[in-house]
Amino acid sequence: MDQQSLPLSGYTVLDLTIERAGPTAVRLLSDWGANVIRIEAPVEGDIAGKRHGPDSQNLHRNKRSLCLNLKVEAGKQVFFDLVRKADIVVENFRSDVKDRLGIDYESVKKINTAIIYASISGFGQEGPYSKRPAVDQVIQGMSGLMSITGEPGRGPMRVGIAVSDTSAGMFLGQGILLALLQRERTGEGQWVHTSLLEAMLCKLDFQAARFTMNSEVPGQEGNNHPTLSPMGVFNTSDGMVNMAASTDKMFRAFCDALGAEELANNSDYGSVEGRLKHREEVWEKVNGITSQYATTELVEKLNSFGIPCGPINDIQQAFIDEQVKFLAMTKTAHHDELGDFDLLRSPINLSNYEHGVRFERPGPELGEHSMEILRELDYSEERIDEIVESGAVKIGIG
After folding, report:
1. Is residue 345 in some structural domain?
2. Is 9 within the bounds of a domain?
3. Are 365 and 396 in contact (CB under 8 A)?
4. Does 237 lie in the same domain as 103?
5. Domain coverage including residue 278
6. If the chain, 398 residues long, is cut into consecutive pieces of 10 residues, what is the mean pLDDT of each piece?
7. Cβ-count burial of 215 within 10 angstroms (0-12 exposed, 13-18 middle, 19+ buried)?
8. CB 387 within 8 A of CB 84
9. ∠ CA(233), CA(237), CA(242), 5° rounding?
10. Which residues are identified as catalytic?
């Protein structure tokens, strides 16, 4: 589908973000039609290999690149000229960096009072840790997530994806959309911000609520659900499955599906509380039953009885699964050097819009669109030449 017909077409985003959290927020906007200008600092010997890699391409598709030096006055002037026409600025500098550069919210608001200024940091814009650097794994540890991940007695374990980065990016994207909705009513912009730490504490969800309500400190449960049984990983004759038969109705259905009358008639297992109290022995007996079935047979049989059950796939197996293929979770991007390749599409589905089969553009080269963006500011050719010669802007660095 043409980018100009998507829900966010007509909105211009200035993307100052780096790494993962900020780009995740901006990707939401670019995927749904926003005109995203990725403002990148000049670097010596830009490494095309990294820029052409899966991570960069997946984060920065559908964006244009302006190579701009914000540390020089001419570069800052170009930035503020862009701000006059923009709707959204997104940044994930440490809290003090934007102040030092003079591109903080108050400075930007003086240029455009309707601007939505969106920020992600590691620990928040203020507070005792606000100036600290942060990476995903540090936040996983500090938030408590690693303390509840992994098997009991084996020590803390990180989650296998950058979950605090991507969660913060998702929350910031939602915040930007909320601010846009309010601006439609009031005409006023505002500062939207979140942090990796705030996002990760929120993602703890019911585990955090166990503490905030009852002062209970959850621990590691491995592959077992912390408060329900039987729910977790069980062996099959040729592998393993995830299976949930934790409610009274589902537990009875499990017993009916696999002829487990001994389990069904055991009064100790007749309630959610009883099965949790006797969780280890329930797991042993249920596992003894599931181990008699091949994975495919068990998945089909239990699902037919309304019991959630599925295989434990690797990434390749996940993407060749028939349901994943039906969902068409990838789209093709074309790059002049790399050719055609597939990237993950937005997981949001809107009935008025089709996802299409191709991205508008791949992740850009450094400064690939500098010239066309300067011309969109209605600068004269003489002015553009002066800006480029000053070193404030670099053109088409591959």
Report:
1. no
2. yes
3. yes
4. no
5. 231-313
6. 81 97 98 98 72 96 97 96 98 88 96 98 95 96 98 96 98 98 98 98 98 98 95 98 97 97 96 96 97 98 98 98 97 97 97 94 96 97 96 83
7. exposed
8. no
9. 20
10. 165
